Every structure is written in structure tokens, then in C-alpha cells.
Amino acid sequence: MSNVTTLLDAKSVPEAKAALVCPLRNETYSYRELRDEMNRIGCGLSGLGIQKGDRVCIYLDSSPEYLISYFAIWRIGAVAVPANSVYQAEELLHVVRDAGARAIITDIRGAPVAGAVQEKAPGLAHIICVAGPGNTDAMPGDAVAWSSFPAVPASVRAANCAMDDLCHIQYTAGTTGKPKGAMLSHGNWMTALDAEREALRLRPDDVYLGIYPMGHVGLSWGLAVLRAGGTFVMMERFNPAEYLALAGRYKVTVLAGMPPVIHTLVHAEPGIEEHLRTVRVIISGGGQLLPSVWAAFDKRFHIPVANSYGLSETIVIGSGTTTLPEYPHLTKNYQSVGVAVGYTEVRIVDVDDPEKELGPGEAGEIALRGPSVAKGYWNLPEATATVFRHDGWFLTGDIGYIDEEGILYITDRKKDMIIMSGWKIYPTEVENVIVQHPAVADVAVFGVPDERRGESPVAAVVLKAGAALAEPEFETFCRQHLAGYKVPRTLVIVDDLPRVHGWKLLRRTLREKFGKMPA
Predict the structure, then answer these.
(1) Which domains does the chain have, with CATH numbers?
(2) Which residues of 451-498 form beta strands (DSSP E)?
(3) pLDDT > 90: percent of the chain
């Protein structure tokens, strides 16, 4: 049996110990309570006819129910399809249709969107709605209340799954404008959790403050803490004052971070160091941590940074790299993303010939290989064959080099992806929406440096003859069709866009021209 949820069955962890803490709701789940809720919801899904291999979409804000949904789906051998809670109906519809989801778990806020999706996705048989007491009247008529599933015996066992059995489809935005579903297995997850536990040297007395959205594989850091028998304190959204208060109140030892968070801490008022006195490591990932910000953080707080590199397709550092707290030399002037961890292999290959491996100091495409690399992309055999190589190497699309000591550095991106505060934004997807505005003749979306967020998206728009477009109108239009983080922060009106032979867009030229504009 290889079911990742057996981590909650571990007899070495006291059942009464706090596993998950949700300060916003003043709720704490012990290991026993988390396991019991997992079994209750899992059996409830089975009662609706959800079977091993069926896909179940999760459309919730970060919450205890989101985490329980993952565990419940995996427990019965079904496949979790997490969706971002800020998705609009069109974005959610693509995920549900593409995955062939049979059910969706949502709440009162998301229920109308889920209902609209169900009308266009007849294979979506069930909507399970998280609703508090007195709110069930607001549910869609045919929805099933989360609370209606009955308690089940504690002896319920996990479904028997092979290491290679699919348990998760993680959608990542694609350069074609439509998200691609990375297929992750029980074995991928189990090795990823052990790799992260090893990298952070996690212990049962660790308390982790998590800020990563639960619809993202960054959730794996929290699960790794549970794998180690520690306590996961969750935040729904990052707020600097609350973040510091929770770190102090719960005596947090491991902090989730990202470049904008570390930037915020560096520039915070004096005295906040007291809130972080129990912290022994902070995680950074999802974008470049500027050397100047990293150095300032190190000088002020003296807390090691686990500067990590991985992707959705590798469950973060399940097959990836990181700087390790006990080896400060890996930071290399606050520029590296460390060394391979777990069972990871990393190499640099020629951008035009992935069969050709490059030597130390030579920049090329970063390739990763290891047991947490996804099985491929759901229903996309050609896209899978392009980056998931026959010999097990995964081509990341990122550019970097490895020095003589085996330490990895990221220097550029092969793709045009924008990373803002850890969110990945693919320009083509955003452009496909903007070009539908009646005033827009042509558009290019690109990223400009932003010291706090890493990057911010900018839209360069060519208007139709005689048309006008004000920024408030532009923003409103984008927000109607895109998740908030994908909306360009700046609108630039241009006469034309730089293209090669009139067709291939040169975003690099736009970045060079507008890259120093205020973000």
C-alpha cells in the first residue's frame, strides 16, 4: 500500500497533539480530529459514487476544509484537482472540463460559480458545499452539505494505491494560454514530503506558519511538517502584522516566505525581531530573491533562508534544490538556490539540444530528474513529450548554471512567464483576454522588475483606429475575466508592437524599453 494519507495514521504522533491551527476561526484540529474528518469526508464522497481514479475539484479559499478535502480525496484513491479560489467561471470551467471532474467541493461564496460551471460540464455530477450552521439555505438546490456526511469509525483504512497511481492534477498556466494539468502520484507526494522534511531538518517540535495558497503545491511544506509530527499554523492570506503576531504567539520555528515577504520584513519598523526569536529557518521560493534583500535580511535577523527552486511539476523541491540552513556557504553571495535534495538529480543542458549536457559555469536550460517529477501533462501527450524526456529528465524552461561545487544559480527564463509574489502569470493567457476588448487591436503582456513583488505584469496595447481606453475601464474588464493576480498592474498605449518578420513578438524589447518604469 502506498497511500500518502497514511501519514495521519502514524502511531508515533500523539493523537491529541495539535496538527492544524486556524487562528482566524480560533480552531485547532488534533491529529485524531484531522484523521477523523478526513475519513468522514472520504466516506461521504464514496457514498456519492466517487471511486478510485475519479477526479474531484476543490474550489475553496485556504481553510481547514481545503486541507481535509485533499486528504479525503486521496484517502479513497480518487484524484484531487485543486483550483484557485480567485478563478472566475471561465477559468474554473476549463479545469473541470479538462480533468473530467465528477464532483466539486466549494463553499457558499463559490457555489454560484460552481453551479454555472455544472451547467456547461454535464459530467460534473455533484457539488459539495461547505456551509456553516444556518447557511445551508443559501446552497444550490441540488448541492450536498459538507456537514451532512456522517461520522465513521476511526478504523477506516486508506485505499490500496500503487506508488505510480495518480492522486493529484495540478494545473499550471501554459504558454498556449490554457492551463496544463501536471499529473502527480502518491509516490511523487511521499518522496516530496520526505525531501522537504530532510531539507528543513523537520522535527516533531517544529511549528510551521504557512502562507502559501492551498491550491498550490507550496502546501507541501505544511504537509511535510505533519509528516514529521509537527504543527501547521495556517494563514488564509499574508498580512504583515498578523504574520508577525502569529509567529510570536505560536512560537513558530519554520516560516513560510517568499521574496515579497522577506522584502516586507527587511523594511519593517524596528522591534519586530522579538516576534521571530524562535524562528530557525524561513523558506523563500516562487521567484528571485534579490541579493540585496537577502543580504539585508541576513544581517538584520540572522535567520537562515532556505532559498528553494522547484516547480509544480516537481512538487516544489520534491525533485529540486535549496540552500540548507546548516550550510551557509551554499548562499554564495546571496545568489544561489543551493543543491539538489532528496533523490534529485540536476544538470544543465543546451537550450537547443537537451541531449547535450553543459559543464560547470556554462549557462543553459535546467533539467531535473527524481521520484517527485510528474508523470506528464493530463491529456497532452505532445506537450508531455516535449519536456518530460525519455530518459526521465524534466526540462524546466528556466536558464541557469551549476558551479564547480554543484551549486545551482538561476539566471533567466526560457519562457516569458512572469512571477509576481510567487504567482505564475503566463502572458499569452492574459493577452487572449485583453484582445477581446472592443478598443484593443493588439496587445503584449510582459513583466517589469518590482523590488517587493519580484515582477509586475504590464500590458502594452495598440488601440483600434479612433478608440480610447482608460486605465480604470481596462482594469475592470480584466478583473471580469481573470483572477486578480493576473491583471496587469500598468497599461501602456503604444503605436505598434515589436515583432520579428511581422509575427513573432519580442517581449524582451518591451522589457528593455519599459523595464525601469515605476512598478
Answers:
(1) 4-13+30-161 (3.40.50.980), 188-413 (3.40.50.12780), 418-514 (3.30.300.30)
(2) 454-463, 490-493
(3) 75
